[in-house]
Design brief:
Number of helices: 0
Helix content: under 10%
Oligomer: single chain
Strand content: over 45%
Distance between the termini: 72 Å
Largest sheet: 4 strands, antiparallel
Strand order of the largest sheet: 3-2-1-4
Structural class: mainly beta
Shape: elongated
Number of strands: 12
Order of helices and strands: EEEEEEEEEEEE
Radius of gyration: 25 Å
Length: 157
């Protein structure tokens, strides 16, 4: 039909999922919105077996007290040419950006792996303080002639 235009919209349910915890452990809650109404359905983590919460329902990470505001020490070092940058075990984050050459990265005394120019890698944890998350391994980034890379890290002090 000449000169006719339009669109057709089909209402589709909007589903959101969240893993929650109760006195018995963790379970999956699905929030479905259809025709303006939100319906919550609880299942085991398989997403199909019905589940009935026991006791108080909380976000799973809410059962652990939040960490105190720790002091974070940050470092950044640019290495051009031959040389090594070592980040001792216990860091909360390590980032390596390679501008030129193919420096190697050895983690925790493992084999050194070459990393090509243009690569950016990051390792990190998101909970410190009393929970004590940290990277357990030492990182050694070694450059050769023609290498140019940047290494940044953070750790709790």
């Amino acid at each position: 039909m000449s000169g006719t235009s339009g669109s057709v919209a089909v209402a589709a349910p909007d589903d959101e999922y969240e893993i929650l915890c109760d006195d018995a452990g963790s379970f999956l809650r699905r929030y479905a919105t259809e025709d303006g109404a939100t319906v919550a359905t609880d299942t085991e983590l398989d997403g199909t077996t019905p589940y009935t919460p026991t006791g108080t329902v909380v976000r799973c990470d809410a059962t652990t007290a939040p960490a105190a505001n720790p002091q974070i020490d940050a470092t950044i070092q640019r290495q051009t040419g031959a040389g090594a940058v070592t980040i001792p075990a216990g860091a909360r984050s390590v980032t390596v950006v390679v501008y030129a050459g193919s420096p190697t990265i050895a983690i925790g005394g493992g084999a050194a792996v070459p990393v090509a120019a243009g690569t950016s890698l990051t390792w990190g944890v998101n909970r410190g303080g009393d929970a004590g998350e940290q990277l357990q391994d030492e990182f050694v980034i070694t450059g050769v002639a023609g290498s140019d890379f940047l290494v940044s890290s953070s750790r709790e002090v």
